[in-house]
Each structure stands twice: as structure tokens, then as C-alpha cells.
Amino acid sequence: MALLEPVYEIVDPDLYERGGMPHDRFRAMRERAPVYRHHGHPDFWAVTRYEDVVHVSRHPELFSSHERLALFPEVEPEARALQQMMMLNQDPPDHTRKRSIVNRGFTPRAINALTDHIRDICQDLVGEAAGRARAGEEIDFVHEIAAPLPLYVICELLGAPVEDRDKIFDWSNKLIGGDDPELQSDPEVGAQAATELYSYANELAARRREDPRDDIVTRLLRPGPDGSELSGNEFELFILLLSVAGNETTRNAASGGMLALFEHPDQWARLLADPSLLPRAVDEIVRWVTPVNMFRRTAMQDTELGGQEIAAGDKVVVFYGSANRDGEVFTDPDTFDVGRDPNPHIGFGGGGPHFCLGAHLARLELTVLFQTLLDTMSTIKLTGNVRRLRSSFINGIKEMPVRLEPHS
Ligand code: HEM
Q1: What Pfam families does this protein's entry cite (predicted)?
Q2: Residue 210 falls within a domain, yes or no?
Q3: Which positions ≥6 away from 259 have C-beta within 8 Å?
Q4: How many Å apart are CA 219 and CA 91, to the nearest integer?
Q5: Span from the CA of 366 to the centroid of ligand 1 (angstroms)
Q6: What pTM was estimated for this model as a whole?
Q7: Distance between CA 350 and CA 58 in Å, rounded?
């Protein structure tokens, strides 16, 4: 008699809301069913081992990105059409052309030039929080520090004036929220926010065409040495992608990293004693939290993966959250170690053509933020319940009340 195959539920958002990622389940899947057919609604292959996630990411000719965000059939057709025009959801050669243009704006030099601005933003946010702490108040770390930081940085990167921050914050909040019903806006509200953001992107482009500067927008608008440039529509879509891809991810890395440090006070003490560990700590935070848990690909032809026969057209979902705890690659994968070295995590993607464009920027933001917190605070205490995002896609935190104690 054939043994019944175990059933692994892996996308139910309730699993994630209760306790973060279901790491015990991921471990069982990596060991017993690393490429697992998830039958039902939705129907897909779940890929949980590091090696297989990397293989899928690096072979866009076998695994297309064109439907990467569409795992749940509920995605509205208009939203899907819009998504498919973005670089994130495209394959070579369309993706290659756009990526080589936008890469010009994201060179290490261009990003490093933002360091002083990022430091000012962190000092303002943390300074304000310290002032409130001195007055005996507690704050919500997500709303007052983790969420504004990436948003303000994107405004800076776009050259948007400070007085426009609130409206850009509002538009991007209406466009994100994972699959959490509490945060999901009416599709019409999202579409309206996208339209407003587009016309804002056009204004920015017009301003920079008239008054070019040594900034990222100017570089994106200028034709490259081979004459290639983004069309007006491609520029709008890219700004929309940045506001979504660069915001929620970094926000959740910052708050998830803070939570990991609460849960491991010895690691906070290690950082206070030796801040030179910070760059490693930031990568460990991205591994530990894995703010983007998964993305979908579509098999382009019949192929084999982890011993399974995958048919052309099958949905294949890579779970970065699982791969980042794979004991075949990481020593003591369930230990949070701010000095971890080497740390070949794939929180920014498995190294293929879509590898996160903002990885260097995100690392810089997180390093400066935690540096500022260490410089300003002797202790940070969690004072209430952490409310998590109800999403299997984004590993996020909605609220985290804390009390800060500045150095005297
Ligand atoms: C792509 C994660 C921050 C912009 C991605 C991908 C992941 C990711 C997993 C897909 C990789 C793949 O499919 O192989 C993260 C995490 C972040 C972060 C965990 C923060 C800790 C940012 C920031 C920006 C950004 C700050 C920009 C301001 C992008 C863009 C893409 C991307 C534009 C699409 C690249 C392409 O299609 O070629 N990111 N990201 N990300 N990310 Fe990030």
C-alpha cells in the first residue's frame, strides 16, 4: 500500500500572522519534500532548498518572471496588466535593456553620495524618538522610525522636496500591504494613487530635464552611451516600482531586525561593544527576517527540479525565507548571530538577473539606522504586543511599541 504523502500548508496567511515564518514546516519540507506540489488553491510547486531557489533564480529561460506577483488568482486584471509592464515582471531581453538603463542610477557612487542625507534622516527620526522617551513616552517603532526612513530616502533619491514627503508616503501606502485584508485598499484607491504618482513622476522628470543635476533622476533620463533611454511611460513605471519595492521591504527589515535584537539581548550588547560588526549584523538581519518571503516563477518548458518533473506552464514558487535557514549552507541556521561570516543569504534574491537593485541602498539605510540607534540609546525595550502582517508574501510587522532609553 502506498504511503500517503504528507500535506504541507504553506501559504495560509494565518500561519504567518501568528508567529512570523513557519520555520518548522519549512525545515520538514526541505528534508522530506524540497520541491513540493501544493495542490488546491492555489496550485504550485513550493521550492524550499537554497540550492534549488538559486537554480530557479539564475535560469530565467526556464523559469519566467512574467507572472511573478500573481500567485493568488484574486489579483485584479488591471493590477496584473500594470505589474506585467514593470521590469520586475519581465524576462530578457526586455528586462535586460531596462535594467542596464536603471543600473546607471544605482551605482555604488550614486548611492554612497546619499550617505549624509540618510544620516540626517536617521538622526532626525531617532532624535525625535529620544525626545519623547525623555518625556516618559513610548513610541511605535514601525510608524515612527521603520516606515518613514525608506520613504524619506526614496524622496531624497528622487530629489522630491521635503514638503512632498507626506503625499508620496500616502500614495505608496495605498499601493502596498501584501495580502493583509486590514491594509488592503480598494483597487480603485490603489489605481488612483498610481495615477497621482505617475503625474508626480512626470513633474519630477520635467523639472530635471530643465534643471539637470548630479542625481539619480537626471541619470535615468539621460540617454546612455549607446543611445538607450527610458520612455516617459517606462520612467513612470520605474518610479512606481521603486516606491513599492524600496519601501515595505526596508521597513520590515528595520522593524524585524529590531525585534530580533529584543529577542537576543546578548547580540545587542555585542553590537554596543563592537559597532564594527554592524555591516555583518545588517546582512544577518536580512537573512533572519527575509522581508520578501517568496516570489513566483512560471516554467517555460518541461524541466526537472529537485527530482521532480515540472511541466511547461506550472507555477513554481521560491521561498527565500526557507532557503535562508538551509542547514546545508548556513552553520547553526536557527541562531541569530550578528557576526555571521560568511553569510551568503539570498534575502535580496537568488543572484539572477533580477537581483535586488536596491540591495546596496537598503544595506546603507539599515547600517546607518542601527548605528544611530546604538549611538543614541543604551537600551530599547519592547513594551507591548507585536502585531504582525497577515501575509505569506511579505514578512512584516504592523505595530511594535517600544520604550527607548537614551544614553545619559
Ligand atoms: C528586487 C528584496 C530593498 C528595489 C528584489 C527582489 C528581492 C528584493 C527578493 C527580487 C529578486 C529576484 O527576483 O531575484 C529586497 C529586500 C530589501 C529591498 C529584502 C530590503 C531589505 C530595496 C530597495 C529598493 C529596491 C531599497 C530601491 C530603492 C528593487 C527593484 C527590484 C528589486 C527595482 C527589481 C529588480 C529587477 O527586476 O531587475 N528586491 N529589496 N529594493 N528590488 Fe529590492
Answers
A1: p450
A2: yes
A3: 382, 386, 397, 400
A4: 23
A5: 14
A6: 0.95
A7: 7
